[in-house]
Input
Amino acid sequence: MNYRKFNNASTVFILIVMMVLSMSCSEKIPTDLSKESIIPKPISIVTTGESFTLKSRTNIYIQGGSDELRQIGQSLANILQPATGFDFDVKFTNKAPRSGHIYLTVSDSDSKLGDEGYELSINRKMLKLAANSPAGLFRGIQTIRQILPTKIELSEKQEGPWKISTGTITDYPDYSYRGAMLDVSRHFFGVDDVKRFIDFLALYKMNVFHLHLSDDQGWRIEIKSWPDLATHGGSTQVGGGEGGYYTQKQYSDIVSYADKHYITVIPEIDMPGHTNAALSSYAELNCNGKATDLYTGTRVGFSTLCTNKEITYSFIENVLNEIADLTTGPYIHIGGDESHSTKREDYIPFINKVQDIVAAQGKQVIGWDDIAISSLKPGAVAQHWANIKNARSAVDQGVKIIMSPAKKAYLDMQYDESTKLGLHWAGYIEVDSGYMWDPATLIPGIERENILGVEAPLWTETVTSMDEIEYMVFPRLPGYAEIGWTSSSLRDWNEYKERLGKHGERFRAMGIDFYQSGLVPWNGVMQ
Ligand code: NGO
Output
C-alpha cells in the first residue's frame, strides 16, 4: 500500500474542501441586506444572504444612451471612485453586462415605482438598478452609497473589500414634495455652501430646495431692472456683516446644480412684509416716498411694501419675471408671512394681485399659511408653519399644503436649553421629537390627500457659517427626509435611532459637524 500516495491525495482533498468553505464564508460577509442602515427606510427589502463585490475591473453599464443617463452613471462613478481607487468606466449597452458589473436601466415596466422609485437587485454576479425615470435611478444611487461600507465616504483611497449584501430593494416615496429651506437673507451663504447644502438633500433623497432670497436684512439676488436691490439691499446682514448676493449667473449655476441632483429650486421673494432691504434700496416703494435705513437686527413685522401704489406691482412683475426666467421648477414662493404692518384690507387684494402676476408667468404660487386669508387661486400651495386656522382655510379653499410646522420641523429651533445656536420661540426640537410626527395626522381636518409634502426650513438669524448650518441641520435632516419618503406605518423612533446612529460615522467621513444627541446610539464604527 502506498501511504504516501494516499496522504497526498487526502491532503489535496482537505485543502480543496477548506478553500471552498473559506470562499463561501468570506462571500457570506456581509449577509443581510435588511440589516443595512438605509435612510430614508425603503418600502421593502428582501435579503438573499450573499454578497457582491466591487472590484477594480467593475464598470458601470447603462442601458440605452443619453447625456442625462451618462451623467447619472458618472455621478455613481464619482461617489465610488475616491475611496475605492477604482476607475469605473461608464458605458452604454443594449443588454445586461457579464458578471462583476453594475447595470443601470430605465424602463417604465413597474408603475408603482412612479417617477422617483427604483428597484435595486443585487446578486453575487451583478448589481442592477432599475427605474422608470432618470430621477429614480438617481435616488437609487443614494441607496447604493448607503449599503457600501462607511469608508466609501472618505476622499482618500481605502483598503477593500467593497462588499454589498445581496437581495432586492423596492422603494418609492410617500410624498412627492420633500424639501428643506435655507434662509440666505439673515446671513448670506455663498454658492459653494449652497451646493454643499444641496448635496445633503440629495443624499437623503429630498427633491426640493427652497431658497429664502429676500427679507428685511438682505436682498440676495441680482435683478437687472432694479439693480440697487442687490448692490445696496444685499450689502449687509444680521449683526452688520458684509452680506452678499448671487449674480444671475450664480443663481442659474445653483439651479442647474440642483437640477443635476433631481432637486427643484423654489425661489422665495417675501412680500409685502419682510421687505426692508427693498424699501431701503428704492424710496418709491415706500408709501411716504422715503427710503428706510438698512436693518441688521432680528425683529420681524415692521416693514411693508406700499400696496396702493402702481409702481409696487411693476416692481413685483419685473422682479418675478427675471427670477421666473432663471428658474426651471414650476413654483415661485411669495412669502406673505407676518405682514403685521400691512392692513388686512390691503393685504388681501395685494396677495390676489401677486397670484395673478405669478400665474401670468406660467408658475404656481406658494406662500406661507398666512396667505390663506385671501382667496387662493387653483394650483396655489400654502406652506403651514404656525397658524392652524389658516392651514385649514387653505384646505377648505381646495389647495394643497406643505407641512413645515415650526414646533416640529424648524431646523433653527434649538435641540434643548443648552444649544448655543438657534431660537426656541416654537419650542425645543430634540432629534426624537423632530422625527416622531405624521404630517397626515398632526392637524385634525388636514388629511393625507390635502398634503403635498414636507419641508424643514432653516432660518439663519443665529446661524453664520457652514459649520453652524451643519450643526443645526444634522442629525435632524435625515429624519425629515424619512418622514417625506417612508410611509408612517413603517416608521418607528426606536428602530430609526439605531439606523441614524450608524450614520454618525458617515457624517464624520463627510466632514459634517453634527449635534451628538444623547438620544441616539452613536455606536457605528468605520468599516
Ligand atoms: C418665522 C418667520 C421668520 C423667522 C422664523 C424664525 C416664518 C414663516 N416667518 O417663520 O421670519 O425667521 O420664524 O424661526
